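Class prep. Protein, please:
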Amino acid sequence: MRRRLKTLLWPCLPLLLAAGTGLGAEPVPPPAPPNLPSVLTLAEATSLFRRQGLDVLLAEAAVQSAEGDVDVAGAVPNPSLLGTFGKSWVCTDGCNFIPPAAFSVGLGDQNAIEDSLSGKRGLRLDVAHAALKAAHLGRADAERTGIALVKQQFVQTLTAQQSLLTAQEAADDSAKLRELMNVRYRSGAVSEADVARVETDALEAQQVVATAQLQLRTAKLGLAFLLGVRSAVPDFRVEAPELMVAVELPGLSGATAETLLADALEGRPDLQASKAQVERAEASVHLAYRLVFPDIALSVNYAQQGTGPTAITPPTITFGLSLTLPIFYQQQGEVRRAEADARTQALSRAKAQAQVVSDVEAAFAGYRIALERAQRMVGTSGILARARRARDLVGIQYQKGAASLLELLDAQRTFRAIAFEAQSNLGDYWTSVFRLEQAVGRTLQ
């Protein structure tokens, strides 16, 4: 009898060992954080985000989870195996065991056949596949929004870097003028009031430098965070000559809000993800109704005690069927919950479409205004060039005695303010470009 049980159980041993090998599996370690180069370009920043951005990694984990849900939904239940062994006894003058041993072996399908024939397994797979599609689109949307944020933060860092250079240049000019005024004061050519004015201007320029240094460091930290840096952020410099001019992009030549909106409605991954969520919710409704059909479990059992015509229990094969009768409860709660989820996802899709319309309209309007302001400011005959010319002319006039010190300081302050404004307008322009890319869902350069 023991030999017979070993024969029955021995084929199951590899399956049990294989199932146990995954119990102590080590978790997959997270990827190493990126190392920032000393000079970071826009292309390198976007590439780093695609590989190591935390939002992208989280979206990839969601995709892996959805892939696991597909495996779970399509899994066929393992059959159940039941074995018994024992002996019978009689008690007349005394209790004695009857020599032949009794044993039985049973096999159940765990609702596997009914699960496939009734369509429950197929509907579960429909739900899981729709959720997996939504997860893939969610990853694409995380990349869309994340890259747009990286580009915008890169522009802020570049603007802060240029502002610091302008502030340092203005501080150097103020320091040179202070040295010159001190020399002229010692020779009696200027008054102490003029020296005080120049020293005040020099100190104000140093204040501007300190503020610009803080803004630049803050912008770099924000960029490093988006790129997934999880340690001390080293000092680095950003470089993007293509972002130092304000020109209309080829991808936007002749574009209108209507054409960009059509592109967004067709290609925005978040809108496509909401559509996949609607499909998942509708499949969940069908599954909820199908689950009203009861689970049916089939089984087969073999029993025997003794052999030959005198066997206490001759070899007997029995077939069984068990099911749950849906008398008191017919999945009403699950059906209502699935229908409510379907309505929620349909409304969420409508909201996402309305959000796309708002995003594109606002981003395109901001782009047109930002382009106009930047070109007016940094053009060859723009405000910045004229302010620089005015400062240089007043400087020449001051050296020749045709302009006062107050006029010189006013010209320098005006130029300094316009230079900062020009850099801000240029940064606003490229920020508007990247916001428009985010709204449309594709690269416009």
The domain at 31-440 is CATH 1.20.1600.10 (Outer membrane efflux proteins (OEP)). The chain has one domain: 31-440. Strands lie at 39-41, 80-91, 95-108, 237-239, 296-305, 313-323. The longest strand covers residues 95-108.
